[in-house]
Design brief:
single chain, 273 residues, alpha/beta, Rossmann fold, nine-stranded mixed β-sheet, 10 helices, NAD(P)-binding domain-containing protein
Length: 273
């Protein structure tokens, strides 16, 4: 398998890269800064898969055509979005990358005859409606982050997530498109930490809206979600008590989807009137 990893120098992506390579998958890691190329290539030493670096700025992806050019260069089977402006460059950069470039890659990937999986690393607060399983105080914390702490980021991520959800729902309703398998996976971690992996998580729906999760555990979960043919939808993620393997097995078998409570029909009508 060929994986296109967007945002390859991000902390989650740096943990994820060797995991994907260990599956004997080939990875093309997209980074903006040439100074990071050697650091990333070092992750491929001794691995089963082949690692390449593609130097490209996601802020320059201004259209679906721009995204398509990168897909044409890499010819991926799977696309992983682990990119973000990271607060650098101000609100304009956040909108350009976290929202606009993400949507362009989603459009190109869903239209591709080769791409069969798209995993988006988002965040748990990226939703409009308080989920039924989350207490008021936990939801209030997420709302405060969205409105007071990181409003531009929250807006950009929500737009990209909702667009992805609408694309996936529309595809399922189209007999011609749904005849070919496509997994749209939205992985939504809580507050990220740089602690070592615990390999114990709470995945799918969690009442702990302000829960923490290590970036390494996010990467481990992403790797395992990508390795299965039965994962799709929204998966909230915090560190918890269940071993990763069991948590992933549970959400897949029980078809757990944290998009529950959101107006998916409304999203399809909004994006594809």
């Amino acid at each position: 398998m060929q994986v296109l990893l967007l945002g390859g120098h991000g902390k989650v992506a740096l943990h994820l890269t060797p995991l994907l390579l260990n599956r004997a998958w080939n990875v093309t890691s997209v980074v903006r800064n040439p100074d990071h190329e050697n650091e990333i290539l070092a992750l491929g030493k001794g691995r089963k898969g082949k690692l390449d670096v593609l130097l490209s700025s996601l802020e320059d992806v201004k259209s679906t055509t721009d995204a398509q050019k990168i897909l044409d260069t890499v010819s991926p089977d799977y696309v992983v979005w682990s990119a973000g402006a990271g607060g650098k460059g101000g609100p304009a950069s956040t909108i350009a990358i976290d929202q606009d470039a993400a949507k362009h890659f989603l459009t190109a990937s869903f239209a591709s005859s080769r791409v069969s999986k798209f995993l988006m690393v988002s965040y748990m607060g990226s939703r409009r409606t308080q989920p039924s399983w989350m207490p008021d105080d936990q939801w209030a914390g997420l709302v405060r982050t969205n409105t007071e702490v990181l409003p531009t980021y929250a807006k950009a991520k929500l737009e990209a997530d909702e667009y992805m959800t609408a694309l996936a729902a529309r595809r399922k309703r189209d007999p011609a498109a749904s005849a070919r398998s496509f997994q749209a996976i939205n992985l939504r971690p809580g507050i990220l930490t740089d602690e070592p992996a615990t390999r114990n998580v709470e995945l799918g729906k969690t009442p702990r809206g302000r829960g923490h999760v290590s970036r390494e555990d996010v990467a481990i979960v992403a790797d395992q979600l990508l390795a299965r043919a039965d994962t799709e939808g929204w998966y909230d993620l915090v560190n918890g008590d269940l071993p990763v393997e069991q948590a992933v097995e549970r959400v897949a078998k029980e078809k757990i989807d944290a998009v529950e409570g959101e107006d998916v029909d409304g999203l399809v009508k909004r994006f594809f009137p």
